[in-house]
Amino acid sequence: MKSDYFKSMWEKMQREGYFRHHADYSDHFGQAPSADERVMDTKLLELDFRQDEISMPFGYSQELERSVKRTESEWLYKMFDLPSSGVALDLGCGFGRTTGWMAKQYAQVIASDISSVVIEEARKNLKNMKNIEFCVNEADSIPVSINDRSLDLVYIFTVFQHIHREFAAGILKQVATALKPEGKVVFNLLSDINEQVDDGAEDTEWTIGYSKDQAIALVENSGLSVERLVRWYRPENEVSWLWVCAKSNG
Ligand SMILES: C[S@@+](CC[C@H](N)C(=O)[O-])C[C@H]1O[C@@H](n2cnc3c(N)ncnc32)[C@H](O)[C@@H]1O
Asked: 70 CB less than 6 Å from ligand 1?
């Protein structure tokens, strides 16, 4: 079955140290940001996140990717009007990078990933935080233990470019049911690349892209409404990111 194959593919990549092989996660494996990189953080946070099209002040680099991650818990709330308390789901949480800051802010966080290998790593990394429930989900679903209308926020960072379109659609349909009436979901998509591709390739970790219209259709066909859609682009680069905040239809 396609979803079982997909799960085993991610288990294998995680067993082989997926995150350690990606330099943009190196802050979490002991690399301290340099003074120049700290300047990058400041410049990034000075952007006007209320614009719908944001030109990145730096060209693409691993340093920019790291800076985006370091400052994420700040720009996210400048860009979107999000619930800041209650119950949050971090879907595709990996080793718990985002779960850590979310657990300081939300009363309860459900941290879930398709890979049991990386969930064990997250459990160890965050063992001192008592308000996190760890789960393993199927390729096209959220954790089965989640009740309808129980979540204030669902956060899905850098996951949907790595999975089949039908899996992303399946996940968002379940998110629509699991959100409280005032709840919201935030996720990002790659754009201006592979927008007509249905099956990605393993050696590119899938790399599926969405146009703005495809992003809107993904949300609306899942029974959610787009609250804001923001495009981050770099003038010299053809690939951009779409950031989507969607809300429950009530
Ligand atoms: C690029 S990493 C991002 C990790 C984390 N969100 C972060 O920003 O640090 C993608 C993660 O998504 C997970 N993943 C892939 N497909 C998934 C799915 N269908 N459901 C949940 N997690 C998935 C992978 O195992 C991996 O940990």
From this structure: no
SS3 readout for 132-185:
EEEEECCCCCCCCCCCCCCEEEEEECCCHHHCCHHHHHHHHHHHHHHEEEEEEE
Q: Whose CA is nearest to atom 8 of ligand 1?
A: 157
Distance CA 80, CA 153 (A): 12
Ligand 1 midpoint to CA 206 (Å)? 12
Give the tens place of pLDDT for each residue, 23-62.
899 998 889 999 999 999 999 999 999 999 999 988 878 8
Residue carrying structure tokens 């997926």: 18
pLDDT in tens, 85-118: 999 999 999 999 999 999 999 999 999 999 999 9
Ligand 1 closest atom vs CA 69: 8
What is the CA(73)–ligand 1 centre distance, in A? Answer: 18
Please check the confidence at residue 1 and state whether its pLDDT lies above 60. Answer: no
* Ligand 1 pocket test, candidate residues 159, 160, 165, 171, most atoms within 8 A of CB: 159
Name the residue among 199, 200, 184 with its Cα closest to residue 243: 184
109 lines ligand 1 (CB under 6 A): no
Q: Is 93 in the pocket of ligand 1 (CB under 6 A)?
A: yes
Measured distance CA(44)–CA(53) in Å, rounded: 14
In DSSP terms, 243 is beta-bridged to 188, 230
Q: What CATH number belongs to 2-18+53-248?
A: 3.40.50.150
Pick from 86, 90, 101: nearest CA to 142:
90
Structure tokens at 228: 């804001």
